[in-house]
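Entry:
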Amino acid sequence: MKKKSAELDKIAEIYAIARRREQASIDFYRESAARVESAAEKKFLLDLADLELDHLQVIKDKYEDVRRQILEKRRSATKPEAGP
């Protein structure tokens, strides 16, 4: 099913927010790891950062896909109709 432009815009905005939140989580876990002395806790926090990094890549990919769909819709909306 093809999505409408307004729906695609909403989805793109949701993914943009998710990207920022994932990046904030990555930064938080990495900064927290730098603040603890325990090797086990440091590793755990860095592992969490890596998991968030994986999530971030998935969200970036989805965001780019939606952006492509939006651009395609806009291009097709501005193409002149082919005449006889």
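The chain is about 85% helix and 0% strand.
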